[in-house]
Amino acid sequence: MAPLRVLCIHGYRQTGTSFREKTGALRKLLKKHVELVYVSAPLSVPRASSEEAPEKENGSGLGPEGDAEEEPKGWWFSDIQARSFSAQQLCEESLGLDSSVAVVREAVKVQGPFDGILGFSQGAAFVAMLCSLQEQKLEPDFGFRFAILVAGFRSACKNHQRFYSAPLQIPSLHVFGLEDRVIPDNMSRDLLPSFHDPEVLTHPGGHFVPAASAHRQTYQDFLKKFQ
After folding, report:
1. What pLDDT is stored for residue 69 in this prediction?
2. What CATH number does the domain containing 107 carry?
3. Which domain holds residue 218?
4. 130 FRET partner, CA 20 to 30 A, in 39, 76, 124, 203?
């Protein structure tokens, strides 16, 4: 049985490479069933003005959300002038979202097809938008059959509210930490009504992708429906 192919969307101030390193435990947990493919956002984030706090080191061996060796990237800026992002920032318009959608479109064209899509933090919020574009037939070539959103949230930007006009029908698994200080769990819960019949996996930790043996069954039970 061929493994499921999943496109992975990193968090703010990460890259595809750093996110791959930080999800080593997840890749190991799912290696028999899933191939994870990583892509980097197109927007360069000024290091001095990053708004989203780095995640703390934790037992999963995951480092801070920022990466010291690579230029940090983002999927959109909530503050157009400062070219910065905060999940809680109310804004009328954002900067860079169209370029980010184009990156995903190209990844699907060149590296696809993909069975599903996984996002973390800002990347998870972006995944919800991508699924909305797919269901609105605005991006018919995406072809994602499921979505996994880790530490996701609903964008506070006014021109993003069009993505939440109707519950998305795509099967979804929402993963979030009860001690997350970057994206508090209530923000992740606020995203749930945007999906029809969402599945939920909570963990007692903070801002990271959980991949302990205790989580394996939930991931596998969700994924086996698409194999």
Report:
1. 63
2. 3.40.50.1820
3. 4-226
4. 203
